[in-house]
Amino acid sequence: MRQGLTWFNIGSLFLGFLFLYLPIALLIVYSFNESRLVTVWAGFSTKWYGEMLQNESLLSAGWMTLKVAFTSSCFATVLGTLAGLVMSRFGTFHGRTLFSGMIYAPLVMPDVITGLSLLLMFVAVALDRGFVTITIAHITFSMCYVAVVVQSRLVSFDRSIEEAAMDLGCPPARTFFQITLPIIAPAVVAGWLLSFTLSLDDLVIASFTSGPASTTLPMRIYSQVRLGVTPEINAVCTILVGLVATGVLAASLITRRQEMRREAEERQAAATS
Amino acid sequence: MATPPHSDPADKVALVSGDTANAGALAGLHARLMLFPPYRLTGDVLKRLGFSGRSAVIAIPYVWLLAFFLTPFLIVLKISFAETVVAIPPYTALITFAENGWIAFHATLDNYTFLFDDPLYINSYLSSLKIASIATLITLSVGYPIAYGMVRSPRRWRFALLMLVILPFWTSFLIRVYAWIGILKKEGLLNLALINLGVISEPLTILNTDTAVYIGIVYSYLPFMVLPLYANLEKMDLNLLEAAADLGCRPIKAFWVITIPLSLSGIIAGCFLVFIPAVGEFVIPDLLGGSETLMIGKTLWSEFFYNRDWPLSSAVAVLLLLVLVIPIVLFQRIQERNARAEA
After folding, report:
1. What percentage of chain B reaches a pLDDT higher than 90?
2. Of all helices (H) and strands (E), which one includes residue A159?
3. Strand, coil or helix: A149
C-alpha cells in the first residue's frame, strides 16, 4: 500500500483546521474594526483597545482572574504532581479505586455540578465567598489535569534509573528530587500552564463560587456578551488568545528542544557504549 | 492506610546531611528539628499510628480531593432532601437539635417527585442526552478524518499539526463560543457571505436554534476527540494495512476491518470526553441556543440563579449525576487500562 497523504487526507486536514481557526481569526480581525457594527468593516483602528483600557470594571476583573489563576495553578501543580506520582508509582493501596475515580471524574464532570456542589459546601461551612473559594474550586479541578499529564510522563520513562538510585542507597525523597523531578519537569511545567489557562477560562464554576466583590474576567465577558457582540469584547478576547497562544507555543517549543537534545544524547550514549 | 514494610524515608533522610540538593536541605532541617522534643514526639506518634513518607504523599492529594470533591457531593445529596425556605441559607436543616435534647430528622422526597411531575425536567434530561449523543457522533465523523490525516502526514509535520489541534483547546471556551455569535447571527458573517455569493436570498436563522448548539459543541469539543484518536492511531502498525493490500483487500475495506477496530479504544475515549461534559453543558446552549433549546445544565443554572431554589437544583444535580455515573465509571476504567497499557 502506498504510504503518505492522499488528497482525501489533505482535504480533511485543510477543512478541519479551517473550521478550527476561522472563527478565532474573524474575531481577531474584527477587533481592529473602526465601526461599532461587528459585521461592517469600516477601516483599521485600535480604538477599542484604548477603550478597553479605560474600562475600570474590566481591568479589575482581569486582575482578579490573574491572581486566581496564578495561585490556583501553583497549588494545583504541587497537588497534581503528588497525585500523578501516587497513581503511577505506588501500586495498590487501600482506597486506590476511589482515588483514581476522584482523579478522572473531575475531567468530565459537568461544570454546573462541580460549581453547585462546591458552593453548597462553602455555604455549609460558612466560608465567605470570594478569592479564596474560587481559588480552592480551581485547584480542585486543575490538579486532576496535572495528575493525568504527570502520570502519563511517569509511565513512559525508564524506571530502572530510579531503581538504580534507590539500590545505591538514595532515600525515596531524594531520588524524587534529584532523578524523577528533573525528568518529568516538562510535564510539570505543562501541567502548570494547563491549570493556569483552565482557571483563566472558567466561567461556570467561578460564577457559583464567587462572592459579590469578586468578579472574574470570564464572568464580566459573559454578562456583556449576553447584551450583544461588541468590538471591545473582541479586543479583550484577542489579547487573551494572544497571551495563551504565545505561552503555549513557547513552552512546547522549549520542551520539544529539550526532548530532542535528550534523545540525541541517549543515542550518542548508546553508540559509544 | 497501608504501610510498606521495607521503607521508612524519614529515618533514611535523617542520615543524609550537608548536601546541596533540596532533599539534603530538608534532611538537615529534619535532623536539627529532631533535637526538639515536640517535633520528635509528633514524629514518633505519627510513626506509631502507621504514617510514613509514603502515606503522607498519598494522603495530601487524597485528603484534598475528599474534602473538596467528594464531600461537596454528599452535601448536594443532603440538601436535595431538604425543603426550600426563605432564609439564609435557603433550605431546611436535615437534622435539628431540639431544646429538650431530642434530635429531629427531617427529610422530604418532594424535590424528586416534583422533577418527575413537571415535564420540563424530564424533557430537559432527554433533550440533553439527545443533543449530546448526536453532537458526539458528528464530532467523531469530523474528528476522525483529521486525526487520520495527521497520522498519515510526514513525521516532521506532525508536531506542528498536533500543536494546531492543541492550541484551540487552550484558548478560552467562552471566547470560542462567543466567536460563533458574530458568524451565525442574522446579520452575521455567514449570512453576509452566503448572500454575496448568491447562494441564498434571505438570511438564514441559525443563531438561537438547536443547529447553532450542535455547531458550538462540535467546534468546542473537537480537540477532545482528535487528541485521543491521534494518540491511538499513531501507535497502529501500518504493516497490517500493507499486508491486507498485498492479500488483495481494497483500502476502504481495510479501513473498516483493520483501522476502525484497532482504534476502538481511542474512539471510545474520545466519545466519552465529548459526550459526558456536553450533557451538562451550560455556556453553549445559553449563548447559541434559543429559548426552546432545553438542556439540563441551563435548567439547573436558572433554577439556582433565577428561582433561587437550592434544594430543587440539588435534586437536578443528583439526578444528572445518576444519568452520567455509568459513562463516567466506564471512562475511568478505559483511562486506567490505557494508562496501564502504556506502561
Report:
1. 22
2. helix A159-167
3. helix
- Contact criterion met (CB < 8 Å) for A120 and B9: no
- Model pLDDT for residues B147-181, shown as the tens digit of each residue: 999 988 888 888 888 888 888 877 788 888 888 98
Contact check, Cβ <8 Å, A204/B89: no
Between CA A57 and CA A66 the distance in angstroms is 14
Give the C-alpha separation, B97 to B90, whole Å: 19
Helices (H), A31-55: 47-54
User: What is the torsional sign of CA B293, B294, B297, B298?
Assistant: positive
Cell 506518634 sits at which residue? Answer: B45
Q: What is the pTM of this model?
A: 0.82
pLDDT, one tens digit per residue, over A250-265 is 777 877 787 788 778 8
Tell me yes or no: is domain B110-342 CATH 1.10.3720.10. yes
Domain boundaries, chain A: 48-272
Residues 64-93, chain A, touching B (beta carbon < 8 A): 79-80, 82-83, 85-88, 90, 93
ipTM at complex level: 0.85
Report, in this order, helix, strand and coil percent for chain B, each rounded to 5: 70, 0, 25
Pick from A212, A192, A209: nearest CA to A114? A209
Asked whether the beta carbons of residue B65 and residue A123 sit closer than 8 angstroms, the reply is no
Task: Name residues whose C-beta falls within 8 Å of residue A91's C-beta, 6 or more positions apart in sequence.
Answer: none
Q: What pLDDT was estimated at residue A38?
A: 64
The minimum CA-CA distance between A5 and chain B, rounded to whole Å, is: 6
Domain ranges, ordered by start, for chain B: 9-79, 110-342
| Chain B residues close to A152, C-beta within 8 Å | 339, 342
Report the distance separating Cα A217 and Cα A63, nearest Å. Answer: 8
Q: Which CATH class is domain A48-272?
A: mainly alpha
